[in-house]
């Protein structure tokens, strides 16, 4: 594994990924727009950088864990961006959920600068990112994988290599997000119906999580509802964006997605109702006539 790597974006996933790299003996440099996040990581033994460009000048591999394509553009090509400072033959690992066509175009743009690229969306949540047990859906040229070596394996329990050019990883991630968004929306609808009918929510949660109707999203997100804790690990607006990408990809080939369309509207409704930055389980708040659990 390369001895020096950089992580840009120390949110719920990126901070855990940076720690996983450190556990595997990597000299990890970090940058986040919140200076205090970088300083906290430096206190643990990492190196905080003042800009993506400073980080790029020191690292052979850069792992970008920002929210979307626009932030990735800024990280690479904005003021103090890393693209101009990256050494030829270094690798940019892009972990955001983005339009696959945009990812393919980015690979070509970076290749023109002599920079290798891995399309590498991630899944699994903050806890799995922190323990190195998340999933990475990757695609890229063999020479990019040769440089990255076992670095990806240090961050994830499952690293899927889905193709020899960018785009395949992003397509699979978007399909994953289709299911994740629909499952959260369905879980919220089921819990809301139970509340409307006067079923004890804790009892409903216990039964469903031990029955055939359970899903990982029901078990995880409805626990947030029971605790009345809408602290955003993944916010409502993430699924406004991600399900929008799902629908955009399907629309390009005129492929119908009725469940995704409905789930997208539910998250849109939650966002416009004022819950945009709350945990995505807050989509349950769009249902009228129910009394949600309160904090103990």
Overview of the molecule:
The chain is of the alpha/beta class and 296 residues long. It folds into two domains: 163 residues, NAD(P)-binding Rossmann-like Domain (Rossmann fold, 3-Layer(aba) Sandwich), CATH 3.40.50.720; 116 residues, N-(1-d-carboxylethyl)-l-norvaline Dehydrogenase, domain 2. It contains 13 helices and nine strands. Strands 1, 2, 3, 4, 5, 6, 7, 8 and 9 form a nine-stranded mixed beta sheet that branches. Strand 4, helix 4 and strand 5 form a beta-alpha-beta unit. The protein is globular and about 60 Å long. The model has no long low-confidence stretch (mean pLDDT 96).
What is the tally of beta strands? 9
User: Alpha-carbon distance between the termini?
Assistant: 47 Å
User: Rough shape?
Assistant: globular
Task: Just name the CATH architecture of the largest domain.
Answer: 3-Layer(aba) Sandwich
Q: Looking at this structure, what is the CATH superfamily of the largest domain?
A: NAD(P)-binding Rossmann-like Domain
Ranges with pLDDT <50 over ≥5 residues? Answer: none
Proportion in helices:
40-55%
Broad CATH class of the largest domain: Alpha Beta
Helix-strand topology string: EHEHEHEHEHEEHEHHEHHHHH
**Coarse structural class:** alpha/beta
| Nearest-integer average pLDDT | 96
* Quaternary status: single chain
Q: Beta fraction of the residues?
A: 5-15%
CATH topology name of the largest domain, in short, is Rossmann fold
Radius of gyration: 20 Å
In short:
The protein is α/β, with parallel strands linked by helices. The protein contains 13 helices and 9 strands.
């Amino acid at each position: 594994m390369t001895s020096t790597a950089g992580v840009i974006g120390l949110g719920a996933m990126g901070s855990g990924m940076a720690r996983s790299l450190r556990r595997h003996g990597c000299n990890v440099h970090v940058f986040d727009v919140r200076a205090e996040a970088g300083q906290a990581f430096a206190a643990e033994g990492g190196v905080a950088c003042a800009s993506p460009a400073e980080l790029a000048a020191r690292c052979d591999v850069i792992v970008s864990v920002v929210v979307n394509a626009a932030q990735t553009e800024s990280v690479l090509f904005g003021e103090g961006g890393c693209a101009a400072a990256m050494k030829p033959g270094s690798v940019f690992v892009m972990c955001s959920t983005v339009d696959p066509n945009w990812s393919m175009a980015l690979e070509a743009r970076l290749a023109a600068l002599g920079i290798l690229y891995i399309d590498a969306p991630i899944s699994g949540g903050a806890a799995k990112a922190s323990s190195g047990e998340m999933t990475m859906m990757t695609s890229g040229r063999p020479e990019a994988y040769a440089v990255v070596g076992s670095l990806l394996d240090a961050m994830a329990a499952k690293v899927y290599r889905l193709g020899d050019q960018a785009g395949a990883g992003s397509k699979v991630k978007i399909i994953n997000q289709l299911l994740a968004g629909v499952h959260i929306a369905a879980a919220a609808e089921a819990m809301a119906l139970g509340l409307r009918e006067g079923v004890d929510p804790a009892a409903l949660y216990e039964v469903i999580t031990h029955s055939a109707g359970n899903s990982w999203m029901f078990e995880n997100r409805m626990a947030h509802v029971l605790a009345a804790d809408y602290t955003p690990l993944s916010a409502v607006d993430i699924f406004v964006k991600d399900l929008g990408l799902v629908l955009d990809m399907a629309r390009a080939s005129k492929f119908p997605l009725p469940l995704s369309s409905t789930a997208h509207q539910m998250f849109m409704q939650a966002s416009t109702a004022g819950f945009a930055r709350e945990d995505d389980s807050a989509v349950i708040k769009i249902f009228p006539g129910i009394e949600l659990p309160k904090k103990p």
